[in-house]
Design brief:
By secondary structure, the chain is α/β, with parallel strands linked by helices. It has two domains: 3-10 and 152-286 and 373-390, Rossmann fold, CATH 3.40.50.2300; 26-146 and 287-360, Rossmann fold, CATH 3.40.50. It contains eleven helices and 18 strands. It has helices at residues 40-59, 83-96, 108-121, 184-199, 218-227, 237-250, 263-266, 268-271, 299-310, 316-335, 340-348; strands at residues 3-7, 26-33, 63-65, 68-78, 101-103, 125-127, 143-145, 175-179, 203-208, 231-235, 257-260, 280-283, 292-293, 297-298, 351-352, 359-360, 373-378, 381-386. A six-stranded mixed β-sheet has the order 1-10-11-12-17-18, with helices on both faces. It has a six-stranded mixed β-sheet with strand order 3-4-2-5-6-7, sandwiched between helices. A two-stranded parallel sheet has the order 8-9. Helix 1 packs across helix 10 (316-335), helix 2 (83-96) packs parallel to helix 3 (108-121) and helix 10 packs across helix 11. It is globular. The two termini are 15 Å apart. InterPro entries: BCAA_transport, Leu-bd, Peripla_BP_I. This is Amino acid ABC transporter substrate-binding protein. Residues 27-378 form the Leucine-binding protein domain. Belongs to the leucine-binding protein family. Keywords: Amino-acid transport, Signal, Transport.
Length: 402
């Protein structure tokens, strides 16, 4: 098998608007989020996940601590999709607003920017949208991440490999090509795919770096047409996914397998059903998975509740944001105290079944219990095809017409 990897720089933060002040019997969580700027799309998805979980917890009676029931509240500010603004606002939340518990921003870049502040003030943070491995290599004690790290995103694609004939007598059947950009998330996705490809003895035929704005992939795609790799991998957040499927179709690239990140938040199946047909997509979570927990019930129960409240299909960014709130509530209830260090230690000891999947943190704060899944867009639906234990059906390879 041959493959190509493509990705770009995309720093997604989180939303921002202020909530009510702390009151008696209320625990206020803090967050910076991108309601404006280039990351506003997933800022809204993150905010909706946080808000839905807080509503659900409060409707079920809140968090019971020491014989009292505490409601949850969220104070958040718009970080405008920039690290500088995010760090300024985190300081404000902790120093001026007196917030003792933080939820993370959307993106590895913004999470990386605020981590030194979180550590300096010793404020526990449960984050749902910073996946870069480097976040967990600095010895930080106050970060806990519910999602899988970005090097895991497209690794399930290798379980789908099929023997494919060489495209010409002079070209081997098992080689790969890639195009990547220089941001932590993209480099981790690339590294994970590259590690597995090297282990399987698959050669690389292209290694491109895409422009940060990712509005034109034609140079890379023309190389794909000439060298005919069997798999094209693109990690460029929403814009990269949209550009990739549009230009693959427009240029008639003829690639047998395409694997992308951020398909659901880009709404590929809804917006580009023809061009995106039979594309493979990395997912942190999917509504068809058999995960269950006390707060929302099953994965499908959460998806139906989200659709009912917000009027659109729940992307995994919203699901993992919701579960971050739930993890905090669970830790507070087990600690039976709102002391910062006791809640931090309870977070470290988390072993929780949820609609999103199992949550269990290692010493670095990574969730080591939940796998990634891979879907394929079939008849405008995201259908889980890997790993095998979660697959709803067999994958279609090669893409029809390619």
């Amino acid at each position: 098998m041959r493959w190509l990897f493509a990705s770009t720089v995309t720093f997604l933060a989180v939303f921002g608007v202020k909530t009510a002040l702390c009151a008696e019997d209320v625990v206020t969580l803090g967050a910076t989020v991108s309601l404006t700027g280039k990351y506003a799309l997933n800022g809204v998805n993150t905010k909706n996940g946080y808000d839905l979980a807080i509503r659900q917890i409060n409707d079920k009676g809140g968090v019971k601590i020491g014989g009292k029931s505490y409601k949850l509240d969220l104070r958040y500010y718009d970080d405008e999709s920039t690290p500088a603004r995010s760090t300024e606002l985190v300081e404000r939340l902790i120093q001026q607003d007196g917030v003792n518990f933080m939820l993370g921003p959307y993106s590895s870049g913004l999470t990386k920017a605020i981590l030194p502040i979180i550590e300096r003030h010793k404020v526990p943070m449960v984050e749902a949208n910073g996946a870069a491995r480097e976040l967990f290599t600095k010895g930080y004690r106050y970060i806990f991440a519910v999602l899988s790290t970005s090097d895991q995103y497209l690794r399930p694609a290798w379980s789908l490999q099929r023997p494919m004939p060489a495209s010409s007598a002079s070209q081997p059947a098992r080689s790969r090509s890639r195009a990547t950009a220089n941001d932590p998330f993209a480099q981790d996705v690339r590294a994970g795919v590259l590690d597995d490809a090297m282990r399987l003895g698959i050669n690389c035929v292209i290694d491109d770096q895409l422009p940060p704005e990712l509005d034109d992939m034609s140079v890379t795609l023309n190389k794909v047409k000439a060298l005919k790799p069997d798999l094209l991998v693109v990690s460029g957040h929403e814009k990269g996914a949209l550009t990739a499927v549009k230009q693959i179709e427009a240029l008639r690239t003829g690639i047998p397998m395409v694997a992308l990140t951020h398909c659901d938040s880009a709404r590929l199946a809804e917006q580009l059903p023809k061009a995106a047909s039979h594309v493979f997509c990395a997912h942190q979570w999917h509504r068809s998975l058999g995960h269950k927990g006390k707060l929302f019930g099953s994965a499908d129960d959460f998806a139906r509740r989200f659709q009912e409240v917000y009027g659109y299909e729940a992307p995994y960014q919203s699901a993992q944001s919701a579960v971050a709130v739930y993890v905090f509530a669970d830790a507070m209830a087990r600690a039976q105290d709102l002391d910062i260090e006791k809640v931090r230690d309870a977070l470290a000891a988390t072993d929780l079944a949820t609609f999103y999947g199992p949550i269990k943190f290692d010493d670095t704060g990574k969730n080591v219990a939940k796998p990634m899944v891979l879907t394929q867009i079939i008849d405008r639906e995201y259908v889980v095809v890997a790993p095998e234990e979660w697959a709803v059906r067999d994958p279609v390879i090669p893409r029809p017409g390619h």
